[in-house]
Structure formats: C-alpha cells, structure tokens
Amino acid sequence: MTENTTSLKPTSTKAKILKEAKALFSELGYKGSSVRKIAANVGIRESALYNHFKNKEDIFLQITKDIFASPFSFSGESIQEAALKGKPFLKKYTMQYKLLAFDKSNESMFRILLIELFQNDVLREQFISDFHDKNIKILSEGFFIMMQNDLIKSGDPMLVSYEFLSTLFYIRLQVTLLRFDSLSTNALSTQFEKHVDFFWESIKV
C-alpha cells in the first residue's frame, strides 16, 4: 500500500529549534547550552536561527511558556457553564494539572525552570503572568460563580483559589523531587483526586 503523505505537514524550523533546544536544556542545563549547539542539532547555521529567535533566552522563555501555561483556558461563558457543575469543574481542572505534573517530557525542564526563576527576572515575570495570574483568574471566576449560586460557602474567591492551587503546585513539586532522586511517585498518583475530594467537602454548602 502506498503511504499517503498528503496530510503530513513538515515540521517548521521554529518548531525544530524549540524541540532541540528543549532536549539540550534538559541535558546540559540553561548555562551549558548555547545558540551554536542548538543550531548545530537542528542542522542550520547559527545566523539562520536568529531569523526565528533573538537569543538563547528568547528560546528558553518560549519553551517555559508551555510548562507554566494554565492547564486549560475558558471564555467567560464556558467558565460559568463549567463552574455551575460544582465539583466536576475542580476535577476537570485538577486532572489537566495532573497530566502536566506527570509528563516526563517536561520533567527536566521543570527542574531547570525552578532554578532559573531565581536568576532571571523576565522568567519570573512570565511565571507570574502565565502561571499564577491566569490560573488564579480562572479559579477565582469559577469559585465566585459557585458562591453566587450557593454551591459553596461565601468567602473571598481569590483566597479560596490560592488555597486550592497551592496544594496542586506542592504535589507537582513533590513529583519532581522524587523523580530527581529516582524514587517512585506511585504514592502521589491519587493525591490530586484526594485533594479535590477533601477541598470540596470543606467548601460545599
């Protein structure tokens, strides 16, 4: 049978750069990688790489956007629709977060990112914007709608969001630390679900 190649799209140079850069950052760390090495792994001239990215930091920041991105995004209308379901809204959000936490392809980059947060002010700003602010906004809107519809106890929706998200982030950090020491993460596999159950019982009307 002849292989149908009409639907196969060639990977863009920019995508190849990001893929090879991620592999290098994971293997050598941020400081150990260079634009020259990235370009060589892609198979292009170093000068050609600058047609797509300004510098190494620009590449790194693009990759980290995917790691610290909100698990999912809602329009205002769909947030309301999902939040009116109550607990399933939190379960859906948490399951998306869990998938990111156990994604081994991002594991090394996540560790490097945690280190670089203390050394790169642009990365810190991106973390606050892409991870903290967006996630808190989604959760706050959801909790506010639940409060307005008497699904959960009244309170400060932003504070409730902080409390809900902080445990998820801590579990994700635990996963990273255990894998760094080549230890099993099996005990954490159900912690995300248990967190939703416990949290919901503490806030529901």
What do these coordinates show?
This protein is an all-alpha fold and 205 residues long. It has two domains: 13-63, Homeodomain-like (Arc Repressor Mutant, subunit A), CATH 1.10.10; 68-203. 69% of the residues lie in helices and 0% in strands. It is built from ten helices and no strands. α1 crosses α4 and α8 (121-148) crosses α9 (157-180). The chain is elongated.
Compose a concise summary of this entry.
The protein is mostly helical. The protein has ten helices and no strands. The chain folds into two domains: 13-63, Homeodomain-like (Arc Repressor Mutant, subunit A); 68-203.
Span of the ends, CA to CA: 61 Å
Strand content: under 5%
Radius of gyration: 20 Å
Q: Which structural class do you get from the secondary structure elements?
A: mainly alpha
The geometry reads as elongated
In total, the number of domains comes to 2
Give a short account of the largest sheet.
Answer: none
**Mean pLDDT across every amino acid position:** 86
Number of helices: 10
Poorly predicted runs: 1-10
Considering DSSP H and I runs of 4 or more, what fraction of the residues is helical? 55-70%
- Number of separate strands: 0
The ordered string of helix (H) and strand (E) elements is HHHHHHHHHH
